[in-house]
Amino acid sequence: MGTNADTSTRDIVELLQQLGAHMHAVGSRFAARESLHATDVQALSALAMAGGHLGAGELARALELSSGATTRLIDRLERVGHVARSTDPVDRRRRVVAITTSAQTTAGEYFGSLATTIEGVLEPYAPTEREVLRRFLGEVVEAMESHGRP
Predict the structure, then answer these.
(1) How many CB atoms lie within 10 A of CB 2?
(2) What interhelical angle do 4-33 and 101-122 show, nearest 10?
(3) Are the CB atoms for 98 and 52 separated by under 8 Å?
(4) Domain locations along the chain
(5) Phi/psi at 60 (nearest 5 deg)?
(6) CATH 3.40.190.170: does it fit domain 4-146?
(7) Which end of the chain is more exposed for a tag (fewer CB within 10 A), N or C?
(8) Maximal C-alpha separation, the chain
(9) Which residue has the higher pLDDT, 147 or 103?
């Protein structure tokens, strides 16, 4: 079967794959509960991670969508009150798509309990162990962001 390091590496990769599948399922359940498309949830997540607003082009790049598909997505989310088009608070000449307070509240209520659960899982780990986990996960995220991109 190989060395212990090889086995533990395979185990970690498998656990990350399981984590990805579970995260996708959690997002899909939220989408179904809120009558949203999976891409809608990805857009709301991208907006939240970007501080609450992005330009339409930035959102298109984050989601790897065409400009037409992004416009339809924004229109759909705006119709249900999850986003609003507004003036960029930093550059008044620019328009941005902003997540609404109600959408933040809805997502926070749903995903907040998961964050609390994960915080509980991390609690017994020493700060140095959490730093190793943070660094590892950050590097995994970086690797995934560049995977398959030209």
Answers:
(1) 8
(2) 150
(3) yes
(4) 4-146
(5) -60, -45
(6) no
(7) C
(8) 61
(9) 103
Phi, psi of 51 (to 5 degrees): 90, 10
Q: Which tens digit of pLDDT belongs to each residue from 125-134? A: 999 999 999 9
Angle at 35 (CA atoms; ends 31, 38), nearest 5 degrees = 35
- CA-based radius of gyration for the chain: 18
Confidence at 4, pLDDT banded by 50, 70, 90: low
What is the reported pLDDT for 148? Answer: 74
- For every residue of 67-109, DSSP letters joined together read HHHHHHHHHHHHHTTSEEEEE-SS-TTSEEEEE-HHHHHHHHH
d(CA 113, CA 109): 7
Share of the chain above pLDDT 70, in %: 96
